C-alpha cells in the first residue's frame, strides 16, 4: 500500500511537471478565448463587473457574444490577483485541475475495478502522459475542468450507492460541471438519468429522505441555468453551433436534390419526402457521432483545427495506446459485469460521450469531445492489466518490446509538442499578439489612432496585454451595445467598425485608410500597402509575415 502511494505521488509529480513547465510560454501564442476570460476576471477583480458592465454573472459571460461558461473565469480571479494579468495566471486554474484529474481517475478506476491492484496506477500514468489532456491542461479551455469534476463525481456517486451521504458531493461536482462546460449541460443530465435507472434499487432503498440533501443541491445549482435558458442569452452559443442550424448553401442543396430527382417527373411531392431538412440534420448528427469513434481521429490524425489539437497529424492519444484500448474495450463489451468489477457506467459513458459534440455542426473537434476525457485511459489501463495476465514464452519479450516502443513514441510526442510545434505551427493560438502589443505600447502615444485589422477578436488581446482599465472597456462596450441594437451580429468582430479608446477595429482598405497620424496593426486579413513604413513584424521561420505594425511616416 505504501509503495502504491509513493508511485501515485510520483505520477502526480510527473503530471505536474508536464502541465506546469513553461506554462505561460508553451503552447506559443494565446487564444482569444483565454484572453477574454482572463480580462473578464481582471475586470471583476478591479470593478466587480465584467467588461460589459455586468455585475458577477452567474450562468455565462458575454465575452465576444459567445456566452462562455463561467466557472473558469471565476477560478482565474485569485490567480490574476496573485500573479497579475498574464498568460501564466490565465492558464493556472486549468493546469491545476489537470493535475487533480490524475488523482480523480485513480480513485474512480479503483472503485470500478476494486480487485485489480495496479489498474488505478496505470490509468493515472496514462492520463498523466495523455497528449490531449496535457494540451487542454496547458490552455485555458473550459472543457478541461470536467476532466476532474466528472470522474470524481462518478467516484463519489458509486460510493453513494452504499452511503447516500456521498450523493450531495456528486451533486455539487456535477452541478459545477454545468457551469464549467456547455456540453456538460447535455451530457451530465443524460448520464445521471441513465445511472438513476441502472441503480434505482440501491438509490431508493433508503427512501427519499436520504436523497433530500442531494436533491436540494441539484435544485439550487440548476435554477440559475434554467432561468437563463428561458430568459437569458447563454443558450445562444449552443444555438449557433447546433447541427440543425443549416446555412443557405445547405438549404439550397436540399432544394436542388429534390428538384433534380428523377422521381420529380412522376410527382414533385415524392422527392420532397426524401429530401427534407430533418433528414439532413439526422444524417449529419449520425456522421458527427461516428466521427468521434474514428481511430484516425484518436490515434493518428487528430482534430481538424490547430487551435485545440495543437499538432495536426498526431492523434489525441498516444499511438501505442491503440492496442490497449481495443483489447480493453473488447473485453469489457464481452463481459461488462463480472464478480471483480461492474463496468456498466463506463459503457454508458462511452455511448453518451459523443452526443454533445455530434449535435454541433462539424465533427472531429477535440474541444467538443471533452466528455471522453479520462474514459479511454481507464479502458486502456484495463486492457494493459489483462494483457499482463497472459503468460506464455513470448509474453515477456512482447511486453519489453511494447514498453520500449511506448517510451520512444512518447518521447517523439513530447519533442514535437514542447520544441517543434512553436516552429512548425506558429499561427496556432493567434501567435504574435504579445510581442506586437508590446511594440505598440512603446509608440502609440505618437499617433491619434491605432487602427487594427479586424479579425480574431483583437479587442481582447489589446485589453489583455495593455491591461486596459476596465472602466474604459465598459464605456466602449456600452457604445457597442447601442450599435448592435441597430445592426445585430453573431460575434463582436462582425461589427463593421468599433473602438476601444484610441484603438479602432475595422477592415483595412487602401488607399482610403491611409493617414499619417494613424498606426496600423495588420494580421493577415487584408493586403499590405507597398509604401508602408514597417515598425514591427512577426514572421514564421519561413519568412511569412503573421503580424505587422506600420505607419506612413517617412
UniProtKB/TrEMBL annotation:
GO molecular function: pentosyltransferase activity
Residue span(s) of domain Glycosyltransferase RgtA/B/C/D-like: 68-226
Membrane topology: Multi-pass membrane protein
GO terms under biological process: lipopolysaccharide biosynthetic process
Protein name in UniProt: Glycosyltransferase RgtA/B/C/D-like domain-containing protein
Annotated TM spans: 95-113, 141-158, 178-199, 211-231, 317-334, 346-364, 370-388, 400-419
Sorted UniProt keywords: Cell membrane, Glycosyltransferase, Membrane, Transferase, Transmembrane, Transmembrane helix
Subcellular location: Cell membrane
CC per GO annotation: plasma membrane
UniProt keyword annotation of Transferase present: yes
A family per Pfam: PMT_2
Amino acid at each position: 500500500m505504501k509503495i502504491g502511494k509513493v508511485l501515485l505521488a510520483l505520477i502526480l509529480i510527473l503530471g505536474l511537471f508536464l502541465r506546469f513547465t513553461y506554462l505561460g510560454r508553451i503552447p506559443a501564442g494565446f487564444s482569444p478565448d483565454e484572453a477574454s476570460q482572463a480580462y473578464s476576471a481582471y475586470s471583476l477583480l478591479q470593478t466587480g463587473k465584467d467588461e460589459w458592465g455586468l455585475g458577477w454573472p452567474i450562468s455565462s459571460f458575454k465575452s465576444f457574444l459567445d456566452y462562455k461558461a463561467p466557472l473558469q473565469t471565476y477560478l482565474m480571479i485569485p490567480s490574476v490577483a496573485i500573479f497579475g494579468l498574464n498568460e501564466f495566471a490565465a492558464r493556472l486554474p486549468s493546469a491545476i485541475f489537470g493535475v487533480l484529474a490524475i488523482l480523480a481517475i485513480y480513485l474512480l478506476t479503483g472503485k470500478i475495478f476494486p480487485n485489480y491492484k495496479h489498474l488505478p496506477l496505470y490509468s493515472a500514468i496514462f492520463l498523466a502522459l495523455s497528449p490531449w489532456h496535457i494540451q487542454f491542461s496547458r490552455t485555458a479551455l473550459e472543457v478541461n475542468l470536467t476532466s476532474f469534476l466528472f470522474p470524481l463525481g462518478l467516484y463519489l456517486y458509486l460510493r453513494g450507492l452504499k452511503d447516500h451521504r456521498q450523493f450531495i458531493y456528486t451533486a455539487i461536482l456535477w452541478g459545477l460541471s454545468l457551469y464549467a462546460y456547455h456540453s456538460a449541460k447535455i451530457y451530465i443530465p443524460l448520464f445521471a438519468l441513465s445511472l438513476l435507472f441502472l441503480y434505482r434499487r440501491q438509490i431508493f432503498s433508503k427512501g427519499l429522505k436520504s436523497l433530500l440533501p442531494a436533491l436540494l443541491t441539484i435544485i439550487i445549482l440548476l435554477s440559475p441555468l434554467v432561468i437563463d435558458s428561458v430568459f437569458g442569452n447563454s443558450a445562444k452559443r449552443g444555438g449557433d453551433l447546433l447541427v440543425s442550424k443549416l446555412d443557405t448553401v445547405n438549404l439550397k442543396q436540399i432544394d436542388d436534390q429534390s428538384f433534380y430527382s428523377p422521381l420529380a417527373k412522376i410527382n414533385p411531392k415524392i422527392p420532397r419526402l426524401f429530401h427534407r431538412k430533418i433528414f439532413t440534420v439526422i444524417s449529419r448528427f449520425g456522421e458527427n457521432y461516428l466521427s468521434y469513434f474514428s481511430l484516425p481521429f484518436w490515434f493518428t490524425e487528430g482534430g481538424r483545427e490547430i487551435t485545440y489539437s495543437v499538432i495536426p497529424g498526431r492523434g489525441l492519444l498516444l499511438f501505442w495506446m491503440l492496442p490497449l484500448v481495443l483489447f480493453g474495450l473488447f473485453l469489457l463489451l464481452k463481459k461488462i459485469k463480472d464478480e471483480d468489477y461492474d463496468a456498466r457506467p463506463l459503457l454508458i459513458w462511452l455511448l453518451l460521450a459523443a452526443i454533445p459534440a455530434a449535435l454541433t455542426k462539424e465533427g472531429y473537434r477535440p474541444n467538443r469531445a471533452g466528455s471522453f476525457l479520462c474514459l479511454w485511459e481507464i479502458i486502456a489501463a484495463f486492457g494493459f492489466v489483462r494483457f499482463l495476465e497472459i503468460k506464455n514464452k513470448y509474453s515477456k519479450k512482447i511486453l519489453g518490446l511494447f514498453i520500449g516502443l511506448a517510451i520512444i513514441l512518447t518521447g517523439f510526442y513530447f519533442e514535437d509538442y514542447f520544441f517543434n510545434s512553436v516552429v512548425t505551427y506558429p499561427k496556432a493560438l493567434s501567435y504574435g499578439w504579445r510581442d506586437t502589443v508590446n511594440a505598440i505600447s512603446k509608440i502609440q502615444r505618437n499617433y491619434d489612432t491605432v487602427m487594427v485589422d479586424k479579425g480574431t477578436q483583437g479587442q481582447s488581446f489589446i485589453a489583455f496585454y495593455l491591461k486596459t482599465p476596465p472602466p474604459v472597456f465598459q464605456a466602449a462596450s456600452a457604445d457597442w451595445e447601442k450599435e448592435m441594437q441597430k445592426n445585430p451580429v453573431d460575434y463582436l468582430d462582425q461589427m463593421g467598425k468599433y473602438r476601444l479608446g484610441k484603438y479602432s477595429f475595422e477592415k483595412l482598405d487602401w488607399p482610403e485608410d491611409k493617414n499619417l497620424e494613424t498606426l496600423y496593426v495588420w494580421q493577415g486579413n487584408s493586403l499590405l500597402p507597398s509604401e508602408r513604413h514597417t515598425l514591427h513584424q512577426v514572421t514564421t521561420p519561413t519568412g511569412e509575415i503573421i503580424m505587422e505594425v506600420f505607419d506612413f511616416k517617412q
